[in-house]
Input
Amino acid sequence: MKKIGFLSFGHWTPSPYSTTRSASDALGQSIDLAVAAEELGADGAYFRVHHFARQLGSPFPLLAAIGARTSRIEIGTGVIDMRYENPFYMAEDAGAADLISGGRLQLGVSRGSPEQVADGWRYFGYEPAEGQTAADMARERTETLLGLLEGRSFADPNPHPMFPNPPGLLRLEPYSEGLRDRIWWGAGSNSTAAWAAGLGMNLMSSTLKDDENGKPFHVQQAEQIQVFREAWKAAGHEHEPRVSISRSIFPLVNDQDWTYFGHGDQDSDQVGYIDATTRSIFGRSYAAEPDVLVRQLAEDEAIAAADTLLLTVPNQLGVEYNAHVIEAILTEVAPELGWR
Output
C-alpha cells in the first residue's frame, strides 16, 4: 500500500495554448484539482514554490483554501525554499493552515534550487552570516522553524499588555500540535538525507538528485532512502519516518494521452548541471499503456522503497485532464502493483 498524491508546479502563461493563463487561474485550478483528487481517492495535493516566476510563490493562502474545501486529502509543499523564509512568520502561517485543514498539512522545505533571479532571497532582505553559504542559511532557518513548531514558550511577556497573558513565557500562536512531525526535507544528496533524519524530518526526494556514483537514477534514489533510514534509526527517534518520491507517470488510455505523451522522448535518465558545480541526474518519465507501466514501475527500486508517491502533473493542461491522469493511475495501474 502506498499513499498516492499529485505534485503541481503551478505554471501559468498567457499563451492561448494553455488552460492556465493567469495567476488567478493557477490558484483557482489548484484548489479545484485538489478537490477532484480527493473525490477520486488520491491521498495528497502538493505544490512547488518558486519566486519571481509565473508559478505558485506564496503557499499558505493556497493551502488554507484547499484545507477549507476538502476534508481528507493531505495538503503540502514540495518544497518551500528556506533561503526566502522568516521561520517565525512561517511558523504562524503553517500553524494556521494546519488548524484550518484539521491537521492535514505536510510541509516540505529545503535549501531550494536555482531560481529565476540570481540570489533572489537578497531582495527579501536576507543575507547569509559571515562565513555562511546560502545553503547554510537555509538549514539554520529550518532548525529554527523546527524548534518553534515544538511549541516551546520563549518570549518575555510585556508587563503591561493590551490583553491579559497566560502566566510565564509566551510562544508563537496559533500552535498546531503534531505539525512538527509532518515536516519533510527535500534532499538532493545522501548527506542531506542523513542530516534530515538526524533532525527527525521526513524525506522528500524529487525527480533529480546529485549524481553520486553514476548508477541509474532510481538505484541512487533507493540508496539515498536507505541512508536516510539508517540515519533515522541511529538517531533513536521514537516514531517511524515517511519517505516520498516524485515521478512523471502517464497511462496512455485514450487518443488525448497519446497526443500529449505518446512520443517516448523522455524514457531514459538524463545527466546535467543545475548550477556551475553540481552534477545531477534526472529521472526518466513513464508513459505507456497501463500493462506496460505496471512492468516498468515494478522495476523502480526507489518507488518500492518509498511509502508515498507524488505524481508530477502538467497543470497547464487543465483540471479535467489532470484528474483523468490521476484516476487512470489509481484505477488501472496502482491496483496491479499492490499500491491499492
Q: What stands out?
A: The two ends are 6 Å apart (CA to CA). Residues 217-235 form the longest helix (19 residues).
